[in-house]
Amino acid sequence: MRHLIVIPLLLAGATTLSGCAEKADETVERAFQDVNVVDESDLNDVMLTVADPNEAVDYFSRSLQNSPGRIDLQRGLAASLVRAKRNTEGAAAWEKVVAMNGATADDKVQLADAQIRNGDWKAAEKTLDSVPPTHETFKRYRLEAMVADANKEWDKSDSFYDTAVGLTTKPAGVMNNWGYSKLTRGDFSGAERLFGEAIRQDPSLFTAKNNLVLARGAQRNYSLPVIPMEQTERAELLHTMALTAIKQGDVKTGEGLLREAIDTHPQHFEEATRSLRALESS
């Protein structure tokens, strides 16, 4: 009789052990799934930042074939296409993101950015108009300013640029854009001030230095500004100043600046040399 009691107990023990084994397997499987999610998230981040943009496009395209409804993968594909300068495809990919469940206001801002890169200003304006006014980000206002510039709505442009500057800790780039806006509308002194501020924020921003020279030259001020510059940069800025002077009819001044640029450059300055030869031959 005791043997009969032992058998059910053994069976119960075996069932318990089997149940424990199954639970253990489930726990291990869940653990591996968690690891895979973390690994995939890390890989997605790598693909969006340091990977070759076209490799990232291939990666997200393959991932979407297996999980077509995942908005994070569609975002990754759209961002990678823009990084790869495939702007038409990038805009189309961001349109898909915006149409998916879980899309955010920031996705619309990214779509507007892609549309601007694709030269579709009207579509970008329409997209930005659909962004809620409570979505106040640096990128949104920077794009709003660019659209206002395209429409020559200067008061709006200034207001949007001013807001954007206040929403970033690195305003040099947007200050440079704002200065260029002032330059194109003929506000040369305003442009000069903004380019100077951009350079103070980021002394390595050569575009702002070149634009500053253009703004000064437009006012027939042909002396280089007192800003940080390397010898090669100095030569290139002198060349820009020379061309500005020549364009405005101050040919002798331009010729002298070209010669100074050639003498200043630490190597052979082919571009300035060609400009001087063309001037002399004419």
Report on the biggest sheet. Answer: none
Query: Can you give the mean pLDDT?
Result: 88
Task: Give the CATH superfamily of the largest domain.
Answer: Tetratricopeptide repeat domain
Distinct helical segment count: 14
Name of the CATH first level of the largest domain: Mainly Alpha
Residues in helix, %: over 70%
Classification by helices and strands: mainly alpha
Secondary structure tally: strands = 0
User: What series of H and E elements makes up the topology?
Assistant: HHHHHHHHHHHHHH
As for the number of domains, it is 3
Assess the beta-strand content as a share of residues: under 5%
Question: Descriptors for this entry?
Answer:
3 domains, mainly alpha, elongated, Serine Threonine Protein Phosphatase 5, Tetratricopeptide repeat, 282 residues
Give a quick precis of the structure.
This protein is mainly α. The protein has helices spanning 2-49, 53-66, 71-83, 87-99, 105-117, 121-129, 138-150, 154-165, 172-184, 188-201, 206-218, 231-247, 251-264, 270-281.
What does this 3D model show about the protein?
This is Tetratricopeptide repeat protein. InterPro entries: TPR-like_helical_dom_sf. With 282 residues, the chain is mainly α. It folds into three domains: 50-118, Serine Threonine Protein Phosphatase 5, Tetratricopeptide repeat; 136-224, Serine Threonine Protein Phosphatase 5, Tetratricopeptide repeat (Alpha Horseshoe); 230-282. It has 14 helices and no strands. The protein has helices at 2-49, 53-66, 71-83, 87-99, 105-117, 121-129, 138-150, 154-165, 172-184, 188-201, 206-218, 231-247, 251-264, 270-281. It starts with a helix and ends with a helix. Residues 1-12, 14-18 and 28-38 have low confidence and may be disordered.
